[in-house]
């Protein structure tokens, strides 16, 4: 037996493979659920109800999906150019630091202007953190997987230093948290008495803009060409260095925007537990979406629903909430298998 590339995968296979991958992941996750003594039908019903069964549950899922959309887009843009950005978590935190630095009183402006300035500061900080690994890759050939991954820990240590030092809120009684951002910089709630904020609209707009950039612009074509075959793109006269630098800056800016949005939309201040791993989950989201910007939105909603639903399921059924991590990991593995099936077919 050998694997033969499919020259033109059928549309039904491209559409059905992701759905089959998710179903297979849920079926595999049923094994540890059953071993834990849970009723499978009841457990999955509780997961669906906790994430989608009411308007409040849906709002929690959408709020959880907001940063996942942005970090998923950050990873998708970089991966499209074969620039392996594993540092979205650190870029998210640095974007949050910049948002607090600008929005907690350093600048006074009307609400819309101040919101734009704070978001721009967060995006710039994330792009700045990605600039270093991209430059090292282009100039010295340093593996960006290592540099972006290690910078996550550097960024977290930097956040801890700032929260214990110059950015600590004098009113926090020694608790490591920053001063709150001004009310004028707080993103408005989309629905009263929920955590759903205008950052969702920002994330959806970013997904559309990234899709237009990748699919409808010359720069996006260059990104796709470099990602498909860098040597052929260079032979065609494309500036490989500029393409990778551009992809890295956009990727870091999107991750930094996620951090600024979390500060401005949810907490209002910065703590070291701002992110439960949104940057790392963004890698899963991007892979589930097969690096498609609009698919990132659907993948982020699925991952968010799994995490929110697993929390409700653990309280109702009595199983560990870590089952969400298992479902997401299995979904990634089955999606990789689905990608293999769509690109290749077995031949005797």
Characterization of the model:
The chain is an all-alpha fold and 348 residues long. The protein is 72% helix and 2% strand. It has helices at 11-35, 40-52, 55-80, 88-103, 111-140, 144-164, 199-216, 218-228, 230-235, 240-267, 278-288, 293-317, 323-343, and strands at residues 2-5, 344-347. It has a two-stranded antiparallel ribbon. The protein is globular, with a radius of gyration of 21 Å.
Strand content: under 5%
Determine the number of helices (DSSP H or I, runs of at least 4 residues).
13
- Through-space gap between termini: 4 Å
Q: How many whole angstroms does the radius of gyration measure?
A: 21 Å
Structural class by helix and strand composition = mainly alpha
Number of strands: 2
Shape: globular
**Biggest pleated sheet:** 2 strands, antiparallel
Oligomer: single chain
Whole-number mean pLDDT: 90
Q: How are helices and strands ordered from N to C?
A: EHHHHHHHHHHHHHE
Helix content: over 70%
Identify the strand order in the major beta sheet: 1-2
Unreliable spans are none
Which SSEs are present, and which pair or pack?
Blueprint: E1 2-5, H1 11-35, H2 40-52, H3 55-80, H4 88-103, H5 111-140, H6 144-164, H7 199-216, H8 218-228, H9 230-235, H10 240-267, H11 278-288, H12 293-317, H13 323-343, E2 344-347
Antiparallel strand pairs: 1-2
Helix pairs in contact: 1-13, 2-3, 2-12, 3-7, 3-10, 3-11, 3-12, 4-5, 4-6, 4-10, 4-11, 5-6, 5-10, 7-8, 7-12, 8-10, 11-12, 11-13, 12-13
């Amino acid at each position: 037996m050998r694997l033969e590339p499919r020259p033109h995968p059928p549309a039904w296979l491209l559409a059905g493979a992701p759905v089959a991958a998710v179903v297979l992941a849920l079926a595999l996750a049923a094994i540890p659920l059953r071993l834990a003594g849970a009723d499978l039908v009841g457990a999955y019903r509780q997961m669906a109800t906790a994430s989608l069964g009411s308007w409040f549950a849906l709002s929690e899922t959408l709020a959880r999906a907001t940063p996942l959309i942005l970090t998923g887009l950050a990873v998708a843009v970089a991966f499209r150019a074969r620039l392996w950005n594993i540092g979205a978590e650190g870029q998210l935190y640095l974007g949050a630091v910049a948002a607090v630095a600008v929005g907690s009183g350093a600048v006074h402006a009307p609400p819309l202007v101040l919101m734009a300035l704070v978001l721009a500061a967060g995006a710039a900080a994330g792009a700045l953190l990605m600039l270093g690994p991209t430059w090292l890759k282009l100039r010295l050939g340093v593996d960006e997987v290592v540099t972006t991954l290690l910078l996550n820990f550097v960024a977290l240590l930097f956040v801890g230093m700032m929260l214990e030092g110059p950015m600590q809120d004098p009113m926090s009684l020694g608790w490591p948290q920053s001063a709150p951002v001004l009310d004028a910089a707080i993103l408005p709630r989309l629905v009263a008495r929920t955590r759903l904020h205008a950052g969702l609209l920002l994330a959806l707009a970013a997904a559309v803009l990234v899709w237009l950039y990748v699919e409808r612009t010359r720069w996006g074509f260059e990104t796709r060409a470099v990602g498909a075959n860098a040597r052929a793109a260079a032979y065609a006269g494309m500036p490989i260095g500029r393409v990778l630098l551009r992809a890295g800056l956009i990727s870091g800016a999107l991750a930094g925007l996620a951090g600024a949005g979390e500060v401005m939309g949810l907490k209002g201040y910065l703590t070291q537990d701002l992110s439960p791993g949104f940057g790392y989950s963004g890698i899963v989201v991007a892979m589930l979406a097969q690096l498609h910007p609009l698919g990132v939105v659907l993948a982020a909603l699925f991952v968010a629903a799994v995490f929110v639903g697993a929390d409700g399921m653990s309280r109702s059924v009595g199983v560990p909430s870590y089952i969400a991590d298992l479902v997401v990991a299995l979904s990634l593995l089955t999606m990789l298998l689905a990608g293999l099936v769509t690109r290749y077919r077995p031949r005797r």
